[in-house]
Specification:
Keywords: ATP-binding, Cell shape, Cell wall biogenesis/degradation, Cytoplasm, Ligase, Magnesium, Manganese, Metal-binding, Nucleotide-binding, Peptidoglycan synthesis. By secondary structure, the chain is of the alpha+beta class. It contains 12 helices and 13 strands.
């Protein structure tokens, strides 16, 4: 689809989530790429403007560069459905499920897909949590994180029993649901997926080597100390197995457009475990989807235009079957 056929485009960025800063960086990158490609694209921050302005000002489609709550969790998607403005990425239900790490794990487990063992703790019950019980169930080290945040916000890798109460409290500041998860020790990889249904395809796998194995918010976005290896250095068989796994994980959640799935490979058994999915991945200078796309021969600008061209609505998907 040519740039002139994409119409007037709003790049939704910023928003009200804890990931606002990252979203603004993603959005500015996308905006520039679309404009350079000849698209009539404009910045639009839902934290500063009412979404009804999209209809009033005649926008034809939206590129969602929002991350986290109110942008990646089905809320903006639902509003755009009501406005009848096609948007990039997954629809209402898939976005909502994927934003909730616990619900995502439940779907994956129901479909027989591997994901680390977990225990869900509710913030209101923190005073009743048994540290010994959690360690018995999941072992140490353990990952503690908010169930509905991204960009490693509120995430702690717990190494000792003494660290667990503070980790639970930190996650509880971010979310009422706290996900305690078995820590898989081994290679950390991520793999983007594009398309919808049977046309979904994986982009090249990226292996992540972070300082001291700590791939946190700072190391994701604001340092150059983390190594991103693409080609990943894994065997062809392992890469193929991971690509097949993430495509299946993406499909069973009903995702479309694009997404990025994080995977841990057990260092001893080489078994891959699904961690989580991002349905509105980062598009900053440090972001992984553009990196993987480049490795497959797709430039940043072409990636943005391709994603924009895939913008649609849930009810259109239903009509088309």
């Amino acid at each position: 689809m040519s740039a002139s056929n994409l119409g007037k485009v709003a790049v939704l960025m910023g928003g009200r989530s804890a990931e606002r800063e990252v979203s603004l960086m993603s959005g500015q990158g996308v905006l520039k790429a679309l404009q350079v490609s000849g698209v009539d694209a404009h910045a639009f921050d839902p934290a500063e403007r009412d979404l009804s302005d999209l209809k009033r000002e005649g926008f034809d489609r939206c590129f969602i560069a929002l991350h986290g709550r109110y942008g990646e969790d089905g809320t903006v998607q639902g509003a755009l459905e009501l406005l009848g403005i096609p948007y990039t990425g997954s629809g209402v239900m898939a976005s909502s499920i994927a934003m909730d790490k616990t619900m995502t794990k439940r779907v994956w487990l129901a479909e027989g897909l591997p994901t680390p063992a977990y225990v869900l703790v509710h913030r209101e019950h923190l005073g009743q949590v048994s540290v010994d019980g959690l360690i018995k169930a999941l072992g140490l080290p353990m990952i503690v994180k908010p169930a509905r945040e991204g960009s490693s916000i509120g995430v702690t890798k717990v190494l000792t029993a003494e660290e667990l109460p503070a980790a639970l409290a930190a996650a509880g500041v971010c979310d009422a649901d706290i996900l305690c998860e078995q820590c898989i020790v081994g290679d950390e990889v991520t793999c983007p997926v594009m398309g919808a249904g049977e046309t979904s395809r994986a982009l090249p796998v990226i292996r992540i080597v972070a300082p001291a194995g700590n791939y946190d918010y700072q190391n994701k976005y604001f340092t150059d100390d983390t190594q991103y290896l693409v080609p990943s250095g894994l065997s062809a068989a392992e890469e193929a197995a991971i690509e097949a796994l993430v495509v299946k994980a993406y499909q069973v959640l009903g995702c479309r457009g694009w997404g990025r799935i994080d995977v841990m490979i057990d260092g001893a058994t080489r078994k891959p475990y699904l961690l989580e999915i991002n349905t509105s991945p980062g598009m900053t200078g440090h972001s992984l989807v553009p990196m993987s796309a480049r490795a497959s021969g797709l430039s940043y600008e072409a990636l943005c235009c391709q994603l924009l061209a895939s913008a649609t609505l849930d009810h259109v998907q239903e009509v088309l079957g």
